[in-house]
TrEMBL record:
Keywords in alphabetical order: Signal
UniProt signal peptide: 1-19
PANTHER family: RE45066P, RE45066P-RELATED
Protein name: DUF19 domain-containing protein
Domain of life of the native organism: Eukaryota
Length: 262
């Protein structure tokens, strides 16, 4: 009888040890998998970070004005789009949906420029009409958008956060309209300001329609009184990758917002 008890006790201990080992192995695998994902996301971010500002023509002293230069810019845009597509997998829920819709908008913008030789030539002709003031104004407006997104994603809370992110769209359109224009010798069909405003719409319009029914225009933002505290702080320093870091913060926060709240 004692032998049976001893054998049974040994069997129970063995089962307990095996179960503990399996649990520990599963936990280690999950931690390793999570670590791999985090490492992969960081790698993707590091790869695309130096490409974003050149792709958006931010900080450039001159813009592409020949088909050959447009071709190089299209190649750069394709790399950014591909990197963003991979990076979208780093999010969950509505954060992933929002980030992926943004990236599809980026693809539409690139197709509008790069999908045919005629579009490339048309784009080159339009960008030839950009004055130094237009080039500087474009960088100014996108830097303001970068600051605003970062301030919003860092400080605002649901649902005000959604309103502030949405109102960045109308604010940057307004900024571009005020701070960019066309050289005197160019006609309305070659107006860089209109081209830049339509480019922003290509990238953001679908995302705005998904999340921003109440905040699509500057007037709507005023009417709905989105929380604008500290939103125009020109001294704010953005740490991290241009546009991408604020977008990541915003996408992560949006992932925590229930769809019914948007």
């Amino acid at each position: 009888m004692k032998s049976l008890v001893i054998i049974f006790s040994i069997l129970l201990c063995s089962l307990a040890v095996n179960a503990a080992k399996q649990k520990l192995t599963k936990q280690n695998n999950e931690e390793l998998s999570s670590s791999n994902v985090t490492s992969s996301c960081a790698t993707i971010s590091n790869q695309i970070s130096p490409l974003i500002e050149p792709a958006l023509l931010v900080g450039s002293d001159s813009w592409p004005t020949t088909v050959e230069e447009i071709n190089k810019h299209c190649e750069l845009g394709a790399k950014v789009h591909k990197g963003f597509k991979r990076y979208g997998k780093c999010f969950t829920g509505i954060g992933r949906q929002a980030f992926n819709i943004f990236n599809r908008g980026l693809k539409k913008y690139m197709q509008n420029i790069c999908s045919s030789e005629k579009k490339k030539q048309d784009t080159a002709e339009i960008l030839k009409c950009a004055s130094n003031e237009t080039i500087g104004g474009w960088s100014k407006c996108l830097n303001k958008a970068n600051q605003r997104l970062d301030i919003t994603a860092t400080n605002a809370s649901d649902p005000n956060m959604v309103g502030n992110i949405c109102c960045t769209y109308s604010a940057v359109l307004d900024c571009v309209a005020l701070n960019t224009g066309s050289s005197p010798e160019c006609g309305k069909t070659r107006d860089p300001s209109k081209f830049l405003q339509s480019s922003i719409s290509f990238v953001l319009k679908d995302l705005i329609e998904l999340l921003c029914a109440n905040y699509e225009t500057k007037e709507a933002c005023v009417t709905n009184a989105a929380n604008q505290a500290n939103i125009a702080d020109d001294s704010h320093q953005v740490n991290g990758t241009f546009i991408l870091s604020p977008l990541i913060k915003a996408a992560n926060l949006l992932g925590e917002v229930h769809a019914d709240s948007i």
